[in-house]
Design a protein that fits this description.
The chain is α/β, with parallel strands linked by helices. Helix content is 31%, strand content 24%. Among the domains are: 140 residues, Rossmann fold, CATH 3.40.50; 132 residues, ANL, C-terminal domain (GMP Synthetase, Chain A, domain 3, 2-Layer Sandwich), CATH 3.30.300.30. Bound molecules: 5'-O-[(S)-ethoxy(hydroxy)phosphoryl]adenosine. The site of 5'-O-[(S)-ethoxy(hydroxy)phosphoryl]adenosine has 22 residues, from helix 10, strand 21, strand 26 and strand 27. GO terms for molecular function: 3-hydroxypropionyl-CoA synthetase activity; acetate-CoA ligase activity; AMP binding; ATP binding.
């Protein structure tokens, strides 16, 4: 593997933490948990009935309380918000506290109580954080949906979670145009009688129609006071459901608790980011994804940090937008994605070089593997060879970081492209099919061998699926679905997904979800999709479809099908290319050989195809790829 190292830290070398964690991980996490404010202490640290873990049983806590009430300095800035259209707002901890209490009271008056689900479909505005913290305050379970998802994706999630209230906005800005969120919600919830209320924030000022369930945000809070005590909730009380794609047709509702999750987020936020009173932290993730939950909404606030929150596209209206934000707010910690970095890198060095980025002291990435050349570009051009980079590996299901350098804790040599080591108190290994650890530098499956505090409670309403998806491949071990190797120095390198999940621009999307959308089109009988490597997005989606008998194949039809997938799931699911083929490569038992599609796509040797039902299908797929390669140059 890549052996070049960069030893650059922030002067921290706290060896006691790793030692404590390795001696007794359960006691260790209890000590970490004590850094939060609990109403009542737990009587059992961990109840582990595999595969179900309950952390800090008997303890009571509240996420909103830990994000707001515990902070003495009400004048401290919590959020420096910038809209895509350059609207700006500065919100202090005190103001945020007041907003949240008022909105909590309004939710209560609308009949929302402990355990009720509330769907949030908002752009990246401070009210999104207000809505989440208000749900948390009264014990309602929030489920945030990324504002790029379509009406039918919202509908699936609202139906699955049975949300009684939806919080949205008239519209949001994206690349200078207005995305009409309220209209999308209208079509999503048409006929869903269990939805009682839709609260609408005025953001973009576009025309909307208010029906009898609808109420504007300002009217909703008009009569509410700004005093609302936080509910004392059991540690294992669900904080949120976040839907994520997997290997099955429909997204799964990942369910997180309160006490364990907050412990994990609080500790990892401090270890990874070395947060100080004076820091200006900026994570570019949208709150619609887990990174935004853990390291925009909850992490910085429970640590009392000041953060920048940005509404729009990172390269709008010019490719200098991010550097302009970093310069203007004097950002000290910047956490973004490899996809964004690859895009910035493509625009050239002159742009970042013309901004003053001297305030930066720490850089991070998340969501997909980072190529060593991009890492080095980030290190030199953005960090000016002064800032450590943390490559953080984790998942929606893990709640928080699991592998990462931790400059807030220790200084280690950094290897570009490696996520370094497991965080303290977490046991991760690379194993073969049988669960035995593989030797160094050997590819295997990444698994987690002991419960950890940020781990999901279950999948919403589906314990059985939780068991089969994550805990059936290896006994009492969590299966991540990722390939990895551990080098001879013990560094982890992530090698992408081992299952049928794609990572397009860092967003997770299941092949099964895409295929089920494709075959719902009237002219398609079968479909297979796979990811092919892309210089900016990491991976892009390529679809192969078999048209129904008698269907005339035209460019219009191709465009129509691509648009149908986009409308059905959302823009992130748009196939880059779609090919009509007369058959798909399948095994004799009828399973689509995705391994083969992927191999052809990645220019790898095809290997053994003796199990194929019909060799001619391979030729067709190969021909389609040859054509694609020609097009992509
Ligand atoms: C991938 C995002 C390589 C991985 C926080 C994982 C990564 C999936 C990294 C989870 C990283 C995340 N290096 N790959 N630093 N971070 N991944 O649920 O495949 O959206 O399983 O969570 O992203 O994606 P999710």
């Amino acid at each position: 593997m890549h052996s070049e190292t960069f030893t650059i830290g922030l002067g921290n070398n706290n060896t006691a933490v790793r030692k404590e964690a390795s001696e007794d991980y359960v006691a260790f996490w209890a000590r970490e948990a004590q850094k939060l404010t609990w109403f009542k202490k737990w009587n059992k640290i961990l109840q582990w009935d595999p595969p179900f873990a309950r952390w800090f049983v008997g303890g009571t806590i509240n996420a909103s309380y830990n994000a707001l009430d515990v902070h003495q300095n009400r004048q401290k800035i919590a959020i420096l918000w910038e809209g895509e259209n350059e609207d700006r707002k500065v919100i202090t901890y005190g103001q945020l506290h007041d907003h949240v209490q008022r909105f909590s009271n309004a939710l209560k008056s609308a009949g929302v109580g402990k355990g009720d689900r509330v769907t949030i479909y908002l752009p990246m505005v401070p009210e999104l954080i207000v809505a989440m913290l208000s749900c948390a305050r009264i014990g309602a379970i929030h489920t945030v949906i990324f504002s790029g998802f379509s009406a039918s994706s919202i509908k699936d999630r609202v139906v699955d979670s049975k949300s009684k209230v939806i919080i949205t906005a008239d519209g949001g800005y994206r690349r200078g145009s207005i995305v009409k969120l309220k209209d999308t919600v209208d079509s999503a919830i048409d006929g869903l009688n269990f939805v009682e209320k839709v609260v609408v924030l005025k953001r973009a000022g576009n025309q909307i129609t208010l029906g009898n369930k609808d109420i504007m945000w300002d009217d909703f809070v008009k009569n509410a006071t700004d005093k609302c005590d936080a509910e004392q909730l059991p540690s294992e009380h669900p904080l949120y459901i976040l839907y994520t794609s997997g290997t099955t047709g429909k997204p799964k509702g990942v369910l997180h608790d309160t006490g364990g999750y907050l412990t994990h987020i609080n500790s990892t936020f401090r270890w990874a980011f070395d947060i100080k009173e004076s820091d200006i932290y900026f994570c570019t993730a949208d709150i619609g994804w887990v990174t935004g939950h853990s390291y925009v909404a909850y992490g910085p606030l429970i640590c009392g940090a000041t953060m920048v929150m940005y509404e729009g596209a990172p390269d709008y209206p010019t490719p200098a937008r991010m550097w302009d934000i970093l310069q203007r707010y004097r950002v000290t910690i910047f956490y973004t994605t490899p996809t964004a970095l690859r895009m910035f890198m493509k625009f050239g060095d002159a742009i970042p070089n013309s901004y003053d980025l001297s305030s930066l002291r720490l850089l991070g990435t998340v969501g997909e593997p980072i190529n060593p050349e991009v890492w080095k570009w980030y290190y030199k051009t953005i960090g000016k060879s002064r800032c450590p980079i943390i490559d953080t590996w984790w998942q929606t299901e893990t709640g928080g970081m699991m592998l990462s350098p931790l400059p807030g804790l220790e200084t280690i040599p950094l290897k570009p492209g490696s996520a370094a080591f497991a965080i303290p108190g977490v046991d991760i290994a690379v194993v073969d099919e049988n669960g035995s650890e593989v030797p160094p530098d050997t590819k295997g499956y990444l698994i987690i061998r002991k419960p950890w505090p940020g781990m999901l409670l279950s999948l919403w309403g589906d314990d059985e699926k939780y068991r089969t998806v994550y805990w059936s491949k290896y006994k009492d071990c969590y299966y991540t679905g990722d390939y990895s190797i551990k080098d001879s120095d013990g560094y982890f390198w992530l090698l992408g997904r081992a299952d049928d999940v794609l990572k397009v621009a860092g967003h997770r999307i299941g092949t099964a979800e895409l295929e089920s959308s494709l075959v719902s089109h009237r002219s398609i009988s079968e479909a297979a999709v796979c990811g092919v490597p892309d210089a900016v997005k990491g991976e892009v989606i390529i679809a192969f479809v078999v048209p129904k008998e008698g269907v005339k194949v035209t460019d219009e039809l191709r465009a129509e099908i691509i648009k149908a997938v986009r409308d059905d799931i959302g823009a992130i699911a748009t196939p880059q290319q779609l090919y009509f083929v007369s058959k798909l490569p399948k095994t004799r038992s009828g399973k689509i050989m995705r391994r083969l599609l992927k191999a052809i796509a990645s220019n790898e040797k095809i290997g053994d195809v003796s199990t194929l039902e019909d060799g001619a299908a391979v030729n067709e797929v190969q021909a389609a790829f040859d054509d694609l390669k020609k097009q992509m140059g």
